[in-house]
Design a protein that fits this description.
The chain is an alpha/beta fold. The protein has two domains: 241 residues, Ribonuclease Z/Hydroxyacylglutathione hydrolase-like (Metallo-beta-lactamase, Chain A), CATH 3.60.15.10; 144 residues, Rossmann fold. 36% of the residues lie in helices and 23% in strands. It contains twelve helices and 24 strands. A seven-stranded mixed beta sheet has the order 1-2-7-8-9-10-11. Strands 17, 18, 19, 22, 23 and 24 form a six-stranded parallel beta sheet that branches. Helix 5 packs parallel to helix 7, helix 5 packs across helix 9 and helix 10 runs parallel beside helix 11. The protein is elongated and about 80 Å long. The chain binds MU-OXO-diiron (FEO). MU-OXO-diiron binds next to helix 2.
Length: 396
């Protein structure tokens, strides 16, 4: 794959990882990209590098434009290994005049690479760097996605290089948003936000307010993963505004696992109640749906319902995995309810309620427990719970 000139004298020189299938518990079943950018100005500048195994692809791309030893500056927007894994080898080869990073970036570089003589230069929000004809403005974006993260903005090109923010895990031969299927692109962007950034929604909200306050003129957003936004910059900014405020729709996600199908029967009866009220429903069996796809559906749902039978005084391991992952991502403003069958003790519902309380959910019912196999009366109770959930969702 060749390089792509994204703005005059600014080139994509990154790598496409077609085969990665897991990113810290997030199912990346369509791969990803590690975007890196080379600015050909009086000071030749490399912005971000790539994951270690992709170093040769990065160097091959740089070689198409210049001798890598001619690079003057390296800007490290983010120290996580998918963007800095090959940084030590690149610095050894290039011997740059300066390596720019944030205050927290310097600490992260020290603790990751223990460098002795790197020419680090710390920058903070508002600092600028002249490359010749172009200027880089730095903006610290702590916790998007790590404390060290920052944006690099090039006003001459109206270009925001945004590190992890606005990214998608999607490997493509195309580089721009208007070259791919737009609904699929937004679905990948939503999955990325739900699984990586939802926890940092308060930071995203503040950052978007700050960017609006700074009145930056932006006509291209180039994240470090996936497609570059040049047609739909307004749409992705609006989506981030909405997601960071936990805005949601009249939609319920029901997540369950089952042992001998009793909990599944309950899930279907509750579903009927929800659908009877005209509310959209996603019924997601943990045996066939990945946790990261479930979180993506939860992102814009007003209601979430969890069902698990009791196993050894607790819940099924799949549900414990799901709830632990989801709790860490801090969804907010959700209506919640729980249900499950049991043989002799029945603690699963209580434990699920504990997780929902920790996620500050509005628990609208103590939960339904059914001993062994549901009766017709139990089905009616489940249906009624579905109606109650749907009505609460419509009223919210
Ligand atoms: Fe793509 Fe936080 O690294």
């Amino acid at each position: 794959m060749g390089t792509t000139e994204i703005k005059e004298n600014i080139h994509w020189v990154g790598a496409v990882d077609w085969n990665i299938r897991d990113f810290h518990g997030y199912s990346t079943y369509k791969g990803t990209t590690y975007n890196s950018f080379l600015v050909m100005d009086e000071k030749i500048t490399l912005i971000d590098t790539v994951k270690k195994p992709f170093k040769n692809e990065l160097l091959h791309h740089i070689h198409q434009l210049t001798d890598p030893t001619k690079i003057d500056y390296i800007i490290v927007n983010h120290v996580e290994m998918d963007h800095s894994g090959c940084l030590p080898e690149i610095i050894d080869l290039v011997k740059p005049e300066k390596v720019f990073c944030s205050v927290m970036g310097e600490k992260a570089i020290q603790s990751h690479f223990h460098p002795k003589d790197w020419p680090l230069e710390v920058v903070k929000t508002g600092d600028t760097l002249s490359l010749g004809k172009k200027t880089v403005h730095f903006l610290e974006t702590r916790m998007l996605h790590w404390p060290d993260s920052m944006f690099s903005y090039i006003p001459e090109d109206k270009l925001l290089i945004s590190s992890d923010a606005f990214g998608q895990h999607w490997s493509t031969s195309e580089r721009f948003d208007d070259e791919v299927n737009e609904p699929e692109l937004m679905a990948h962007a939503a999955k990325y936000y739900a699984n990586i950034l939802m926890i940092f929604s308060p930071n995203v909200k503040k950052l978007l307010e700050k960017v609006a306050e700074m009145n930056l003129d932006i006509d291209m957003i180039a994240p470090d993963h996936g497609l570059i936004w040049r047609k739909n910059t307004g749409e992705i900014l609006e989506a981030y505004r909405s997601w960071s405020r936990h805005e949601s729709k009249e939609k319920v996600v029901m997540v369950y696992d089952t042992m001998w199908h009793s909990t599944e029967k309950m899930a279907k009866a509750i579903s009927e109640g929800i659908i009877s009220e005209g509310v959209s429903l996603k019924l997601m069996d943990l045996k066939v749906n990945h946790r990261s796809d479930i979180v993506t559906e939860i992102l814009d749902a007003k209601g979430v319902v969890f069902g698990s039978p009791t196993l050894n005084n607790g819940m099924l391991p799949t549900m414990a995995d799901m709830l632990t992952y989801l709790k860490g991502l801090r969804p907010r403003k959700k209506i919640g309810a729980a249900f499950g069958s049991f043989g002799w003790s029945g603690e699963a519902v209580k434990h699920i309620n504990g997780f929902m309380e920790a996620m500050e959910m509005d628990i609208i019912d103590p939960g339904i427990k059914v001993k062994n196999v549901p009766t017709h009366e139990d089905y009616q109770k489940c249906f009624d719970l579905g109606v109650q959930i749907a009505q609460a969702v419509k009223a919210k």
